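Running this now, will post back.
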Amino acid sequence: MRGLPVVTWRARILVGSLLMVLAMPVLCGARSVRFAPTQLIPSGIDQPKCIATADLNHDGYPDLVATGYSDNLNVDVMSVLLNRGDGTFNPPTTYTFDFYVIGCLAVADFNSDGHPDILIVGGDVSGNGIALFTGDGKGNFTGPIYTPTLLAGASLSVAVGDLNKDGADDLFVGGNGSSETVFGDGSGHFQDGTFQGAFGFDVILGDFNADGSLDAATAGGTSDDLFVLLGNGDGSFQNPDVYANLGVPDGVASGDFNHDGKLDLAVSLYQDSVIETFVGNGDGTFSVGQLGFVGTYPGKLIAADFNKDGNLDLAVANFGSNNVAVLPGQADGSFPTTQFYTTGSSPAYVASGDFNQDGSLDLAVSDYGDGTIALLPNAGGTFVRLSSSPNPSKVGEPVTFTATVVSSLDSKYKGSGSVTFSSHSQHTVPIRLINGVATFTTAKLPEGTFHVIAEYSGDNSFNPNTSKPLTQKVAP
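Update: finished.
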C-alpha cells in the first residue's frame, strides 16, 4: 500500500514529511459501561455511612474517607484509607470524636494552607453543628474543631462553594427540618448565615440559571419534595421552587445530561425505587424528564462519565437490595438501561475516583450493614505504555515509537482501535492496533528534546486513554 505524507511538524517537535499507512479507528457502536466484580475491604467503622474521595496526602492518588458509628467503641468515627496508587489501600486510620454523625462530609482546603481538610455535619452534645479536621498534607488530621449551627432539625448533608463571592469556601447545610448557609472566612472558622426554607437529605450547588452565582438543590428531608433555590450572589437565596410529591427523594446529582449547555438534575426516589431526571431550562426552572428504574431503596447518587464517551452516567447505592445501580447516559440525556453490581450489606453512599491510575473512574460504596467499603474497578480501564528505540537517538537515525494497550485488570486482554502519536499540538494520523500494539517509525527528527504521548481511541470494550509523556532526545 502506498505511504501517505501525514503532517509537517515544526522544528523541535516530532517532525515531518513522515510516511505511514493511513489507518482509521475501528470503534463502532456504543462503548459499554463495565465494572469488575466487587472487592470488599474493611472500612474501620462498624456502620460506615458517608464516603468521599480526595487526594489527602498530595501523592496524586485519590484516597478514601468515611464516617459512621462504631458499636465496639460506642462512639462516632472518621476513617481515612490512603491509596497505594494501584487501586489498593492502606489499613484504615480512625479518628474518634464526641459528635453525632447524623449527616455527611466534605473535603476542601478550608484554612487555606494548601492541604485538604475534612468537614463533617451532624451534632454534638449541645446541638447541631459541624466538625472540622485539619490536614497536614501527609494524610494525617487533627481536631475536630466544633462550630454549632442553628438548624432546628438534624444536619444531614453539606455542599461546599463560595456563596458570597469573598474567595472563601462556604457551606450549604441541609437538614430534616430546614437548611442553612454557613460562611467560611478562609482560615478554618465558620459563622452562621441564614435559614433556608428547604429540607435536605442531600444538597448540591450549581449555577442553574447561568447568572454567575451559585444556586442550590436539596432533596427530601421530612418532605417528598425537590427544592431549587436560586442564589443572589451575596450568600442569600430566593424562596425555593418546589417540585412536589416525588416519593421520598434521597439523593440529588447535577450535570448537563443532554449537551444543551444547561445543568440538569437527577433525583433518587427512595420509596419508588427509581431515578427521575429534571431537564434544566437554563433560567433556574426544570421540566420533568424521564424515569430510570433501579434497585430497592436507592440513596445517594453521583453523575460521572464512566466509559469516557462524553455522556454523563449515573450510579446510585441501593440500600435495600445490596447493590449499586449504574445507568449509562445517552447523548439525548436519557438513561434507558440499568446495570447492577453486588456490594456489601446495606450500601449507603457511593463515590468515584481513578483508584488504579488507568484513566477510568472506579466506584467506592460504603456498606452500612457490614462495615466494609465495596470497591468496583472500572473494567474499561487500560494502561497505555509508550516506548521508543533508540533513545537517545541521532539526527537522521530511524526512531520507532511503540504504544502498547492492555486491560488494567488483566494484561492478557489487548485493546483494539487505534493510537495517535502526538507532540504539543501536532499529531500523526491514527494507527491501527494489532494485538494491542501500534508502532510508528521516522528518521526525520531534528536535534532537540521532544515530549511525545500516545492517545488511545478506545473500542467497544475499553475506554480512551493517554500514555504518560515520553521524552525523546535527539543528538546532532
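Residues 25 and 348 are 41 Å apart (CA to CA). More later if anyone needs it.
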